[in-house]
Amino acid sequence: MGAVAAGRGAGRPGKPVGAITRGTTNPNRLRRQDRWIAHALAPALRRADAPPVAVDLGYGAAPWTAVELFDRLREVRADVRMVGIEIEPDRVAAAQRVARPPALTFRRGGFEVPLDGQERPLLIRAANVLRQYEEDEVEAVWARLCARLAPDGLLVEGTCDEIGRKQVWVALGPEGPRTLTLSAHLASLDRPSDLAERLPKALIHRNVPGEPVHAFLRDLDRAWAASAPYADFGVRQRWLATTRTVAESWPVTDTPTRRRLGELTIRWDAVAPA
After folding, report:
1. What is the pTM of this model?
2. What per-residue confidence (pLDDT) applies to 3?
3. Which whole-number Å values give the CA distances from 273 to 130, 139, 252, in the listed order?
4. Which of 81, 148, 163, 255 has a CA 20 to 30 Å removed from the CA of 194?
5. Is residue 176 left, alpha or beta, with left meaning phi > 0 and alpha meaning psi from -120 to 50?
6. Range with the lowest mean pLDDT among 1-5, 106-110, 268-272?
7. How far apart are CA 8 and CA 4, in angstroms?
8. What are the distances in angstroms from CA 252 to CA 61, 70, 203?
9. How far apart (Å, rounded) are the C-alpha atoms in residues 59 and 189?
10. What CATH number labels 1-174?
């Protein structure tokens, strides 16, 4: 996929907006995002009058992430429709073998998010899409995608490692960014700041002294170190103790139930670039 700026396909009628990504993907790579999305979006999914539409934007060389997200959202709303969108025609053609029309379909497109008629998606997920772009392109991409959302829709944009053990994403509503979520396989986590390498493009270059996200990760590491005695009861208890400490001074928005899964969600304005 690509940005709407810097000449990456913008302004050419009929041409998808964006540039081709590496396309790296693996089964279950985005399971942590999937389960968070299914939880966060559940109220909106359930109250939708018509079958809600979700989009997996830039799903990559194989369609696994779109299929998996579709199956997980169906556990919340059985008639949800999933549209996988890719800018590379060969990837779209290859995905047709797993399509389940009309519920699960694949089509060519980019940041214009081509859907039928006046459809506005309840979800757009763009994972590992913006890392190849410049930081100053992110705001325009976010604005364009948020403008396509349904009134109570959600844009989830972030990155992860190759097997999905370290993930960080931003959740945005039609009005803009709301929260930042860190999610990790706790047993393989040396310290919370290991997640810094997976910060989304808007923050990846901001992990330096003087920036809020740097201070946040610093405080997480300090709380993790102070919570070392809890490791005798398991890494989950150490993480819960760490997040309790951090929540005393940072606007953490999730519950202990979510944190038990290795997550931590904080208000975006607390970590936004200075």
Report:
1. 0.94
2. 30
3. 17, 12, 18
4. 255
5. left
6. 1-5
7. 6
8. 35, 28, 18
9. 26
10. 3.40.50.150
